[in-house]
Design brief:
globular; about 300 residues; alpha/beta; Rossmann fold; two-stranded parallel ribbon; binds NADP nicotinamide-adenine-dinucleotide phosphate; about 15% strand
Length: about 300
Amino acid sequence: MKILVTGINGQLGKAIVNSGRKPYEVIGLEKKHFDLEKFESCKDLILNLKPDWIINTAAYTQVDQAEHQKEKAFKVNAFGVENIAKVLSSYGGKLIHISTDFVFGGDKSKSYLTQDICKPLGVYGASKLKGEELILKLPNAVIIRTSWLYGPVGNNFCLTMLKLHKKYSEEGKSLRVISDQVGCPTSTIDLAKVCWEFIEKLKNKDFESEVFHWSNSGVTSWYDFAISIGELGEKYNLIKKPAKVIPISSEEYKTEAKRPSFSILNCTKTKEKLNIEQTYWRSSLNEVLQNISHKDF
Ligand SMILES: NC(=O)c1ccc[n+]([C@@H]2O[C@H](COP(=O)([O-])OP(=O)(O)OC[C@H]3O[C@@H](n4cnc5c(N)ncnc54)[C@H](OP(=O)(O)O)[C@@H]3O)[C@@H](O)[C@H]2O)c1
């Protein structure tokens, strides 16, 4: 079976390629060879390779910049994704597509179900939601919404916090981190495994396209997450000592795009479908930190 992975310079794309399962033939493509904005060249490449599956991790992920680049965000996250789903469906190929908790407005107090109403607060979330809607019209697509993604490489909160803990503790400064946004981190190592599990489960059948959720388990805030990163970073000798972390409100840390204040994803449907369990977020953080070396941040 041939599996094409897009966005392999991104943190999830790397984790998926690194965890590729035998005997699958895994072909990883970076943006310069597979640009979702270039519809015709994506189409030609897919029809040439005829992969059985595409795992699409490629996306326009700059949440704040998207507020000023609406057209581009939609071209990549909605119409570019629709394009590859259409080409796949022309010959029976299947798609795993990654979406986001930012499709939700954050005004719930219980975990979000896949069928809950979406109310994105910014352009990035709206473009990802449009991508979902377009794919759902076609067969054989699994859409996995995830939240607070981080891993041992790439641009993510964990590596940024390690860098800041190191710098600020050396300078005797405190880190100020938002405490009124609540969610659950998801390790790229864990999400990559779930992508492979879906392929294993669905490889021999056709299916209706559907939305699933996947994150680690538990609930935390960015503030608590930052403290844990410091504590465990010290434990694994990545930093000498953590900086002091001060909780602040979203009001005190203005960003171009609004983020949901609550975005816990209910993952029951995925757990039942694949017969798997979620890992507690702090356990996954332990695993990720053990895979980081000093040169990574
Ligand atoms: N990060 C999170 O917290 C988070 C949370 C929920 C969901 N997600 C979703 O999870 C998926 C993976 O995210 P990630 O954190 O791994 O993202 P990432 O590290 O930002 O990687 C995204 C990759 O997509 C590539 N890309 C950008 N525009 C492209 C285009 N037009 N054509 C092809 N490739 C393009 C980027 O290439 P260049 O580097 O060359 O630009 C990059 O390698 C995305 O669908 C994202 O929306 C992320």
